[in-house]
Model the fold of this input.
Amino acid sequence: MPLVTLFTNLPDHKLSEELHLALSSKLSEVLAKPEKGFSVTIMGGLRMTRGGTLAPTCELRVEAIGFNSREQTQPAARALTDFLAEQTGIPPNRILMNFCDLSPHMIACEGTLVG
Done:
């Protein structure tokens, strides 16, 4: 049940529904988890700096159960950076990611804990 949030200073009109759905699909592929369990939020038009500049940037936060090793996160970081750079035009050096391992007892859906 991954929870994913993309924060960016790109304006909302540059963040299409197609991008949103493509990101959800790409995350499912990269994390090897069924897309039906993903929650993907895109927050655009934010006031963000990276490296002291307001140039286009983004931060992707991925919280998932059992996604907790370098062997998992390194390939995901590469694939998702490439995807975001291609889809948004943001250079790879302006794309930051944060992977967080969730404990099953810390996430619930429909009023029931996942684990």
